[in-house]
Amino acid sequence: MEQNLSIEEIQNFKGKYPKQLWYLFFSEMWERFSFYGMRGMLYIFMVHHLMMSDVVANLQYGATQAFVYAFTFVGGLFADKILGYRKSLFWGGILMIVGSCILAFDPKQFFFLGVSFTIIGTGFFKPNISTMVGKLYKDDDNRRDAGFSLFYAGVNLGALIGGYICIAVAKGAMLSSIIPESLRWNVAFGFAAVVMVISLLTFVRTQKSMGEIGISPLLNLEVKKRKTYEYITYIGSLAIIPIIILLVSNSEYTNLFMYIIGPCSLLYLFYEMRNFSLNENKKLLAALVFILFSVVFWAFFEQSGGSLSAFAANNLNNTVAGLRLDPNGVNNSANSFFVITFAALVGLVWFWMSKRKIEPNTVVKFGLGFLFLAGGFYVFYYTKFFADANGVTSLDLFTFGWFIITFGELCLSPIGMSAMTKLSPQKTQAVMMGMWFLASAYGQYFAGLLGANIASASENATNFEKLTVYADGYKQLAIYALIAGLILIVISPLVKKLMQEVK
Fold first, then answer.
1. Closest CA to 425 of 503, 502, 347
2. Where are the alpha helices (DSSP H) in 316-394?
3. In 3D, which of 434, 479, 54, 52 has the Cα closest to residue 249?
4. Measured at the alpha carbon of residue 79, what is the angle toward residues 257 and 336, in degrees to the nearest 5?
5. Is 1 within the bounds of a domain?
6. Does residue 3 form part of some domain?
7. Is a pLDDT exceeding 80 seen at residue 25?
8. DSSP character for 316?
9. Looking at residue 458, what is its pLDDT?
């Protein structure tokens, strides 16, 4: 029976991908529909319905997303120590469903309550399903990067569908003849709840095929004691909801939180490093290099939900490749479309290069990621030369910018997730995956600050002047991304020594 499969039987699969990867692919796809659908609505909802200024909305968006990813570290910690990946994932999914239902009921009145449930739920769900992907492979399996690239395509397939549909429904660009204007935002948030149910059912129906992957690390304890630890975790995660509401609804508290969570996670990691060998600790230091540089990458990339949302709403026309499309929907989903289109291809390219022993190492891949990021933001800057007198410019060119950035993301994000599983000792893999996503939290936080800075510079300006300010800001980000990429390529031999046999 599938439920009795050993780790060895699962990992000794034939072909390019294990069948369990496809199960996790679809579960993650629907979860990301829910997450990105909701994320793509936040900025617009805060500006137009909660009546926040562009500056405040950028800061609030950055704070909200920072908390989402910061709690992945907490979720990874409890998975490693108490719940295991499976129960953590299931609990996180339940909390995300509750959060989406709350927003669907009354997004204005219960906005921060719904968002808080989603924050904690994502913290339990996201790092653990990614860690389970890594468990499908042996440590020396050169198919791992290709597997994570395929899994990442699932992430982006969900982001593509959810990122476009939810905001299009909310703004009335889709289903406007069916959904009354007064209920559009409710229905859009409701979509996030429905697809999260599908995600959870997909996982529940297929989890037996995972064998012993993701089971509780406390099976050696008596049942009563183990259940007590689990119930404390569940109750504790609910008990902190009021605190999360306070933190999320007051962005000034975000600074304090970010000052605390990062150093605490590092201190915890250094504490755990006492239990590992010198070679294992060298690998963990290499992992930290990737984590630190990813903060910079996401700070630029995540302008998508903040400043680029404002840019799309105010400064882009509604035509791409001859099709009339909502520019915010394109901003939310173009990157995902390109990831879906090219992720498997990029994964197979890495596999082909590996077979011929010409595959660049992980550090160089990271460096290439920054170079592509720089190219994309330079295209965003270049859109100002195609603007009309009203400051409205080409959605086609803007979409091409996302096309370039996509290859940067494919050089960094799935490769980074794969590296966390390869460089981390067995007992701390979920924590390290949580730290990887914690880097995204800091990226989101800094993205909000960068976006707010750009927005403040364009306050009280004409639409054409706003275009110039935003474009010049993106040019600066392109320069910084270029520098970061060159630094990574230069230091790659040093980091590779820390990684040892890991490629």
1. 502
2. 327-355, 362-382
3. 52
4. 70
5. no
6. no
7. yes
8. B
9. 64
Show the domain range for 152: 12-499
pLDDT digits (tens, 9 = 90+) for 393-429: 999 999 999 999 999 988 888 777 777 878 887 777 6
Confidence band of 2 (pLDDT split at 50, 70, 90)? very low
The torsion of the CA quartet 15, 17, 23, 25, rounded to 10 degrees, works out to: -150
Q: Residue 18 to residues 84, 147, 348, 387: CA-CA distances in angstroms?
A: 21, 8, 15, 49
Q: What is the pLDDT of residues 73-84, one digit of tens each?
A: 788 778 878 888
Cβ atoms 486, 367 nearer than 8 A: yes
H/E element, 257: helix 252-272
Measured distance CA(84)–CA(70) in Å, rounded: 19
Query: What are 476-490's pLDDT values in tens digits?
Result: 999 999 999 999 999
| 281 part of a folded domain | yes
Question: Helices 54-78 and 19-48: crossing angle, nearest 10°?
Answer: 150
CA-CA-CA-CA torsion for 411, 413, 417, 422, nearest 10 degrees?
A: 20
Distance, in Å, from the CA atom of 477 to the CA atom of 184, rounded to the nearest integer, reads 35
Distance CA 500, CA 496 (A): 6
What value does the mean pLDDT take over residues 438-454?
79
Residue type, 460: N
**Pair of tokens at residue 363:** 């550090």
What's the confidence (pLDDT) of residue 1?
35
Task: Please tell me the number of Cα atoms within 13 Å of 67 on its side-chain side.
Answer: 30
DSSP state of 232: H
Alpha helices in 136-217 (DSSP H): 144-171, 184-206
What is the total residue count of the chain?
503
Report pTM.
Answer: 0.74
- What is the domain-level CATH number for residue 464? 1.20.1250.20
- Residue 272 forms part of a structural domain: yes
Least confident span in 53-67, 293-307, 351-365, 476-490: 53-67
What the block records as the tokens of 301 is 């990339």
Q: Residue 133: what pLDDT?
A: 84
Number of domain units in the chain = 1
CB atoms within 10 A of CB 318: 16
